[in-house]
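pasting ABC transporter ATP-binding protein for the record, 263 residues
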Amino acid sequence: MIQLEHLYKSYDEGPESHEVLHDINLSIRPGEVFGILGSSGAGKSTLVRCINLLERPTKGKVIIDGKDVTDATGKKLSALRSSIGMIFQNFSLFQQRTVLRNVTFPLELNRTPREEREQRARRLLTLVGLEEYADRYPSQLSGGQQQRVAIARALANNPRIMLCDEATSALDTTTTVQILDLLRRINRELDVTMVVITHSLAVARNICDRVAMIDGGDIVEMGPTEELFSDPHSDILKALIASDGAQNRRDTNTTDSTTEEEK
Ligand SMILES: Nc1ncnc2c1ncn2[C@@H]1O[C@H](COP(=O)(O)OP(=O)(O)OP(=O)(O)O)[C@@H](O)[C@H]1O
Ligand SMILES: [Mg+2]
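structre below
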């Protein structure tokens, strides 16, 4: 369980202080796929980076499995970080390392013996469907394959939680669906709780059990995905749903020039 209680975050403390998150309260249940939806600059990345303390909240609490970790340092902080995997839009792979050595990297940091870390990495590469690619370099892979490597690396330490910051934003529709299927499988089979940042309604619909809509650093609404999307209350979500509908109609019109209304 991930709990954020009365969480505030400001950048640049002092007179220039700029508050990016205001009084965020939320509970993410174990085993859930939880979506954070919002437009650019809304504070999504900041919020998620507070969960693994890549950003320190200015005020409020981060509670993981009942333990207040807000002020964790040293070994406690390292243990927290290794129990939480993270993936990004730009994959963030080490270009000078092979696929295998990207996945072994977190295990090198915690001094797992070489044979064990290679075995683990190969098992994870099999899980993400890349067992044949162990000796290639990231630049020799497609975007979707690179994201699979990043997913395998994020799983190296057996995390209970995975944070996905716009993990599919750089990928085409087909590849996006494949990556979301993989994340869903990891959620179910490995029982990893997922926090998925997206600005895409399609991504949220595809994978998220519940969604929080954030706007200007506030959670403006939150609920089970289908419920929220079928009865939105905030202007921002209403606008997002309307523009998504218009986009879908445009897409349909370009692939099939006869619309339902014309038939
Ligand atoms: N390290 C930082 N120092 C100062 N301001 C920052 C920092 N990181 C983010 N901000 C500001 O905080 C606000 C929220 O940024 P954040 O990256 O959390 O938004 P986001 O919702 O993830 O946006 P996007 O969809 O574009 O990734 C923005 O106004 C941004 O300029
Ligand atoms: Mg962001």
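The chain has two domains: 2-83+162-250, 93-158.
Residues 44-45, 165 surround magnesium ion (ligand 2) (CB under 6 Å).
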